[in-house]
Design brief:
DNA-binding, homodimer, alpha+beta, about 25% strand
DNA sequence: ATTTTAATGAGAATAATTCGCATTTGTGCT
DNA sequence: AGCACAAATGCGAATTATTCTCATTAAAAT
C-alpha cells in the first residue's frame, strides 16, 4: 500500500518516480520537522544516487501542491512537514531543538481581531514561541507534589 | 545635537566613526523597516564611499548591543528598526508591503499560557500577520456611513 | 603628538537554494 | 509489448544575502 503523499501526487498529476517515492516515504515517516539536509541524509540512506537538486525540486513541487509545508525557524534554512493536519503554530525548544505543535482558538480569534483594527483581513500568519523548559518544578501536565 | 543611536554607541563603548554616524542617522530617521540594501542606498546618498561590508558589520554590532532589532518577514533578507519602543509584533500588508506594529496584552498572556501547558517559559516569540486591506467597506477606524 | 586598538574597504568565501541543459524515465496510447 | 512525449533527473554552475580576511586607516586614550 502506498502512503498519503503518493496518492496526493497522483491526484495532482505528478509523475511517481523512484526518487519521489523515496522522498514521500521519508517525509511521511518523519515525526519531526527535518531540514533539507536532514531529509537528504535520510534519502541517500535508501537511495544513494538521489541528487540534492531533485530533493529541493521535489520539496518545492510538494509545497506548491500543498502536500507539505515549510517553516523558517530562523536557522538560515527551512524545515518541512507533511500538511496532513490543520495548520498549526510551533513552540521551539531552545535547549533540545524539539518542535511542539499547538493550535489555540483564542489565538485565531485574537489575530483576526487585531488585523480588523487596522482594517485588514489576515491571509496567513506566523506564530512561533521560542522557549526553555520550566526548570524549578514539573510542568503543569505532569505535576507531582513536592 | 546627536541622535539616540550615537549616544548609545558611546555608552556601549563603540567608536563613533563617520560611517557609523551616517548609518545611525539613516536608521534614526527611518519610519519604515528598511532592508540592508535599502539602508545601503540611503547611506551612499550621503556618503558614497561607505562600503556594504561596513554596513553589514555595523548592523550586526548594533543588533548585538540591542540598539536595533532585525526581523525576517520571509523575503529572504532582513529588515531593521531602531529598538526604541517596547518589543512589538508586526502586521505586513501583502499588497503594499507596509508594516504596521502592534502590541496586544492578550497575546502576551496567551503565549505564556500556551507555553506553560507544554512546560515551557517563553524566551522570545515571533508573531507576524500577513494580511490584505478589507475591500468591501472601510476599516473600523475610519468608517463612514454608506 | 604618539600609541593603541578598533573600524574600514575590497574582494573572496559561505551556504541554502535555484537554474540550465543534456539525458533518462514514467505514463498514456496503440 | 512497444512508442512518443512530456515531465523529471543529475550535474554543475549561478544566485543571493551575509560573513570573513587582512592590509590600511582613523578614533580614542595616553
Amino acid at each position: 500500500m502506498e502512503n498519503q503523499i503518493e496518492q496526493k501526487c497522483r491526484d495532482a498529476g505528478l509523475k511517481l518516480t523512484g526518487q519521489r517515492r523515496t522522498i514521500a516515504k521519508i517525509l511521511s515517516e518523519a515525526t519531526d520537522h527535518p531540514s533539507a539536509n536532514e531529509l537528504f541524509e535520510r534519502c541517500t540512506a535508501i537511495d544513494p544516487k538521489i541528487s540534492l537538486s531533485t530533493l529541493y525540486r521535489t520539496l518545492r513541487v510538494l509545497e506548491e501542491t500543498q502536500i507539505i509545508r515549510s517553516h523558517d525557524f530562523g536557522e538560515g534554512y527551512a524545515r518541512f512537514e507533511v500538511a496532513t493536519k490543520d495548520p498549526h503554530d510551533h513552540l521551539i525548544d531552545l535547549v533540545s531543538g524539539d518542535v511542539h505543535e499547538f493550535n489555540h482558538p483564542d489565538l485565531e480569534r485574537l489575530k483576526q481581531f487585531i488585523a480588523k483594527e487596522f482594517g485588514y483581513d489576515v491571509v496567513r500568519h506566523r506564530v512561533e514561541l521560542y522557549a526553555i523548559p520550566i526548570k524549578s518544578s514539573q510542568s503543569k501536565r505532569r505535576r507531582i507534589r513536592s
